[in-house]
Amino acid sequence: MTFQWTAVATFLYGEIGVILVLCLPFISPLRWQKIFMIPLWSKMAVFWNKMFLTIIVLLIVLFLDAVREVKKYSAVHVNEKAANVNTNAFDHIQMKLFRSQRNLYLSGFSLFLWLVLRRTVTLLTQLAKGMASHAALETQVNDATEAAKKYMAENERLQEALNEKGSSKKKESAEATDEKLKKEVEHLKAELQKTSSALHKANNEVTAVKKQSEGLKREYDNLMKEYEWLQDSLNEAEDKKDL
User: Based on C-alpha coordinates, what's the Rg of the chain?
Assistant: First the structure.
């Protein structure tokens, strides 16, 4: 095996090993992202696209060369078999055909796995970013939920405090109203007592005036009787003088 095909075979084995390691289930995409964020990988990422395209071109060239060799030795193999040449020459052509087919498989699988490796790394990076975003969103949702619960609890406490304050205010206002009503009732009672006393006094005065008026009436009647008697006496005396 020449140097170039030894390098291709080694590259193929390395690709298989790297893909198997990337497919290990116990290594999460987030861990792979942390590994990819190592400063060494960060420096290599600058040249990653150029290196990827360069290796793609080299593998395509080797693959096309292997295809050409396979076609070449396949045609020679058919011709030699039809010509019934000696066994050593036929075996040599078969060996060349086998090597060209081997090189075709090596370059073809290397090219295919190189594309698969690039796609796998891209998917792992995207999955790690998605998981990180999901974790961040979940954290934000949890924080928002806790904040909402806290605000709801504070709102309930404030509502209870306002209700208690309102009830205490209502109670105080009711007590103040009761005190005011009691004072008004006491004031009305005092006024009623004063009015009753004044009415009783007025009744007593009216009774006294009535009694006084009755006495005056009796005296007036007596005076009228005396006046009539005196008038009668005076008339009789005048009548006697006239006689």
Answer: 66
Overall average pLDDT of the 185-201 stretch: 82
Say which DSSP state 24 is in.
-
Residue type, 111: L
Distance of CA 238 to the CA centre of its chain: 132
Q: What is the pLDDT of residue 29?
A: 76
Say what the pLDDT of residue 34 is.
Answer: 76
Distance CA 93, CA 43 (A): 48
Instruction: Note whether 6 and 110 are within 8 A (CB).
Output: no
Close Cβ partners of 204 (under 8 Å, ≥ 6 residues apart): none
Grouping H, G, I as helix, E, B as strand and the rest as coil, residue 28 is coil
Stated pTM of the model: 0.53
Torsional class of 2: left (φ above 0), alpha (ψ -120 to 50), beta (otherwise): beta
- The residue type of 103 is N
CA dihedral 17, 21, 23, 29 (to 10 degrees): -140
| 112 and 20 Cβ atoms separated by less than 8 Å | no
